[in-house]
UniProtKB/TrEMBL annotation:
Keywords, in A-Z order: Cell membrane, Electron transport, Heme, Iron, Membrane, Metal-binding, Transmembrane, Transmembrane helix, Transport
Location within or outside the cell: Cell membrane
Record-level Gene Ontology MF annotations: electron transfer activity; heme binding; metal ion binding
Membrane topology: Multi-pass membrane protein
Cofactor(s) listed in the protein's UniProt record: heme b
Claim: Kinase is one of the keywords in the record: no
Gene Ontology CC terms, in alphabetical order: plasma membrane
Similarity comment text for this entry: Belongs to the cytochrome b561 family.
Protein name: Cytochrome B561
Chief place of localization: membrane
A Pfam family per the record: Ni_hydr_CYTB
Source species, domain of life: Bacteria
Length: 189
């Protein structure tokens, strides 16, 4: 595969990036407040479209993230934009944190559901009532995974906001092409 750098990311990397950003944002907005409390009150999650969509989008985030990681190993070289060393290190740390959260959020959701014996409900009527591998595992009892999931959900939105603000800063102040590298390249007329 051609690993030669350009000024823009390849089309598949762009699609993965923006699709993930959209799905994470919608999942966050639809995230049911007090989900555990509702379940303990006997609410069937299948009767709540926000829960069904949130859980479906959460698994979509996991699938997209795994596919993105596979593509990361195969894709053409990422654009190399010259910037100050501290900016480069900050960008690497931000990306590492976002990748970790993209993986941790769906995992903590599954841990929360399994450890509290709540069903996983997805679009199309898919439902997994019991997750005994999770419920019976030692890790299930290490934390209140619903609280961890909620905290990480807030964290990913804050970090994504900082990530977007940094891209805008690069575009408006530094004018180095960082933001433009994540947008489709303009075709010559």
């Amino acid at each position: 595969m051609n690993r030669q750098s350009t000024s823009h990311y390849d089309a598949l990397s762009l699609a993965f990036h923006w699709l993930t950003a959209i799905v994470v944002t919608i999942a966050f907005i639809l995230g049911p407040e007090g989900f555990g409390r509702l379940m303990r009150q006997g609410i069937d999650p299948a009767t709540r479209s926000d829960i069904v969509w949130h859980e479906t989008l959460g698994l979509t985030v996991l699938a997209l993230t795994v596919l993105r990681l596979l593509w990361l190993a195969l894709r053409p070289a990422a654009p190399q934009i010259p910037m100050a060393g501290w900016m480069h290190i900050s960008a690497k740390l931000m990306h590492a944190a976002l990748w970790a959260l993209l993986l941790a959020l769906p995992v903590t959701a599954l841990l929360a559901l399994g450890s509290e014996s709540h069903p996983l409900t997805l679009l199309g009527g898919v439902r997994i009532d019991q997750m005994p591998l999770i419920a019976n595992s030692a890790i299930a009892k290490l934390a209140d995974w619903g609280e961890v999931h909620q905290f990480l959900g807030d964290a990913i939105m804050w970090l994504a906001g900082l990530h977007a603000a940094a891209a805008i800063y690069h575009h408006v102040i530094v004018k180095d092409g960082v933001l433009l590298s994540m947008l489709p390249a303009k075709r010559p007329r």
